[in-house]
Structure prediction request, 602 residues.
Amino acid sequence: MADIYFNGKFVGTSGKGEKFVEDVRKKRRAGLLPQKMNIVYYKEFDEIRINSDSGRLRRPLVIAEKGKPKLTDEHLKKLEAGEISWNDLLSKGIIEFLDAEEEENAYIALTEKDLNEEHTHVEISPSIILGISASLIPFAEHNRGDRVNYGAKMTGQAIGMYASNFLMRTDTKANLMIYPQVPLVRTESSDIVGLTTHPAGQNLVIAVMPYGGYNMEDALVINRGAVDRGMLRSVYFRIYETDEKKYWGGQEDEIRIPDPTVRGYKSEEDYKRLGEDGVINLETPVTSGDVLIGKISPLRFLGTVEEFMTGIENRRESSVTVRHGEKGIVEKIMISESADGNRLIKVSVRDERIIEIGDKVSSRHGQKGVVGLLVNPEDMPFTESGVVPDVLFNTHSIPSRMTMGQLLEMITGKTSAVTGEYYDATGFTGVDENYIRETLGKLGFREDGKEILYDGKTGKQYEVMIFTGVAYYQKLDHMVANKIHARSRGPVALLTKQPTEGRAKEGGLRLGEMEKDCIIAHGAAMVLKERFDSDKYMVAVCENCGLIAMNDRTKNKLVCSLCSESKISWVEMSYAFKLMLEELKSLLIYPRVEVGDHKSPS
Prediction:
């Protein structure tokens, strides 16, 4: 007896599991049962599972019977003519959606040619196996699966024209490529997704060769001449915003140039770029820490009595400044109202990003790398016809990754660049390799894509032929300008007195156990001396009870609060350790510091 489960709940049994499932499928295809229901029979468990819940991934397949697909040429003609629709094919039982479980009972043919009588379904198109991002990869079936995965992931990180109304949008940060190009080698999905109207890359001339070790470990050598002409150039937008909040007691923020009497006033120099309304002027170059919007807020902790006693104006400086490590030019200013009806100001800062050493670029085949060297065009290799490659791609990146799709894209792109035709490289159904080779041969090139190249520095011909072609490259969001980070001195955390964490907070770079081991292995152990005393602290400790003593500054005397003993020593320790001792006290644990060789109180 087969157990029947409906959406995970046991609902009954059936004496003939396979026949029951077959009958349910027939009724679903006839329209007697919901289309969104899927059913599967597991022979090894003797279980029938029926699913109709949400969240299942389902995909369409053509039903096949007796080795023939139910979808005929007649149906296709009627679809083109608009006589029938997709829903008609579903209701007539020609196409059905299967989820991951029902696929366990299906035997799916890749194409109509592969069909035999055992098959239950046939793919509408083999490329539908791939998701949206993966279907944008040309010749994806020639790459290893993990590379297709990487390529799909990086397509989403590529900088392009993400929206046509980018000038009206107020995204917190945005990247825009200045000269995006439509790929010469594309897939059917490119048009459907809109990559032909909003592209995210450029067609570059690639030569597969090493160059003095500067393209080791996936790095790329790039032609400086191409960079100067605008190759892979982008603009980075950052939006800064603030509003005039209202607080209890009738107090509120003010957006204006702060007065010198305000607590936290910077200097007259810092506010000189602001207009009369306290907002910076358009097209003003700005850098880290520059004030964009002048703002004054009420003090957070002072009440009226303290305010009167101290004689301090009850206002503090809270201007909006450019983030640490960023720069740019003020692009636009928007003045509006927030949802609460408060005055809202947004300032957009743009920064032109010319590709530099350390920027990340990638092909569509998961071949990612950073720029290792920018070479003057006169020092770059060149072909017999004088073509200088834009990128020198390392030969070692191919054998272990087995991205044959990139090699095919390069010869197809080369053919496309010469003939002026776009080529379709959709997975499983794209242009044939032999056709591309023949076309390339007819155009006067070698059909394998190799060419004679000359050394730009010496003018000598290279002893070997160099594989050269055109590939679509993407500049990724991971730019060195956003990540470069170093500090000598800077702010520390209030609680632990250790350097702050993170680039935006001007933080330090943390050294862990493994980094420490590397420094010692390099014979630079003394570096650790300065690295590991960022929170060095002198603490007065009572030698009798081992607790931290008090420093009575009025009497200029060290006093132990627990015992009457006055034998107190200064101990050097990390401030974080002193903090831990105090936290142990709060847990009612007695942390005793035993003083050995010590300095006398001073």
